[in-house]
């Protein structure tokens, strides 16, 4: 016969307060196996591992609703859930580390800020121009997108090579559902993942853009930021005057890049 315990005894065996056990019963997460004639709850010895698992998951900050699902599915689905929780917790740890690193970097003395860049579909074209003259290239390719009925959400530039005349990738953030297969052959489509960046506004003349890059690179080196991707310029608006220089420092989620 299975050994049974009163709620007091079960609480002592598992380390779970009686009030918590009663709560778990109300949300149908952990039921007593029976009630005695006097109405007292009884739990079985076989329930101890489950109870300890539930409280362990709560300490690991797993939401109640997820635990409710977890205890009802088979081992294969449980493993998938565990893998997902592990990934999310690692990401949370990374985010906390980045936040602390930023707070310790002397934010009151710097223009640099943190930005969580959402995932985005970007159409890239290569272009070559003198420093500060990429506006006409942006307009050229934006007009091509407009002719196909594709609205542009954001504008980007990534340096490739050169000094006086620069070879760069210029990109256009578009809605993920947009079909861009009919565009020019030289384009490249990237499904950019969600990324945490350090960034700084650049409000000087564009022939001084190198100074902005050097400042952000020196800031990153001084405060031990590790790049998670290439530095890029992010333009907002159609006049290409409102621009930030950005460095990815933490990737959030899976990357899916198509060429």
Provide a descriptive summary of the structure in words:
It contains seven helices and twelve strands. With 259 residues, the chain is an alpha+beta fold. The strands form two sheets. It has a nine-stranded antiparallel sheet. It has a three-stranded antiparallel sheet with strand order 1-3-2. β6 and β7 form a beta hairpin. The chain has three domains: 4-72, Orthogonal Bundle (Multidrug-efflux Transporter Regulator, Chain: A, Domain 2), CATH 1.10.1660.10; 73-104; 113-257, Alpha-Beta Barrel (Multidrug-efflux Transporter 1 Regulator Bmrr, Chain A).
Gist of the model:
With 259 residues, this protein is of the alpha+beta class. The chain has helices at residues 7-14, 18-26, 48-59, 64-70, 75-103, 135-147, 209-222; strands spanning 4-6, 34-35, 41-44, 113-117, 120-130, 154-161, 165-174, 188-192, 194-202, 232-236, 242-252, 256-257. The chain has a 9-stranded antiparallel β-sheet with strand order 4-9-11-10-6-7-5-8-12. It has a 3-stranded antiparallel β-sheet with strand order 1-3-2.
């Amino acid at each position: 016969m299975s050994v049974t315990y009163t709620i007091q005894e079960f609480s002592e065996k598992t380390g779970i307060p009686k009030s918590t056990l009663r709560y778990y019963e109300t949300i149908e997460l952990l039921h007593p196996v029976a009630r005695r004639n006097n109405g007292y709850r009884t739990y079985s010895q076989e329930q101890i591992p489950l109870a300890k698992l539930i409280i362990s998951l709560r300490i690991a900050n797993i939401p109640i609703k997820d635990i409710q699902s977890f205890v009802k599915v088979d081992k294969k689905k449980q493993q998938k859930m565990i893998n997902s929780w592990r990934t999310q917790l690692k990401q949370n740890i990374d985010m906390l580390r980045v936040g602390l690193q930023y707070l310790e970097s002397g934010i009151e003395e710097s223009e640099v800020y943190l930005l969580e860049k959402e995932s985005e579909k970007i159409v890239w074209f290569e272009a070559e121009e003198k420093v500060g003259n990429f506006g006409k290239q942006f307009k050229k390719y934006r007009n091509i997108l407009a002719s196909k009925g594709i609205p542009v959400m954001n504008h980007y530039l990534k340096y490739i090579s050169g000094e006086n005349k620069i070879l760069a990738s210029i990109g256009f953030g578009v809605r993920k559902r947009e079909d861009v297969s009919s565009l020019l052959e030289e384009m490249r489509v990237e499904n950019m993942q969600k990324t945490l960046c350090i960034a700084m506004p650049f409000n000087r003349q564009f022939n001084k853009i190198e100074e902005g890059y050097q400042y952000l690179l020196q800031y990153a080196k001084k405060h031990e930021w590790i790049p998670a991707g290439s530095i890029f310029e992010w333009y907002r608006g159609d006049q290409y005057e409102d621009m930030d220089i950005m460095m990815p420092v933490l990737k959030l989620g899976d990357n899916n890049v198509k060429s």
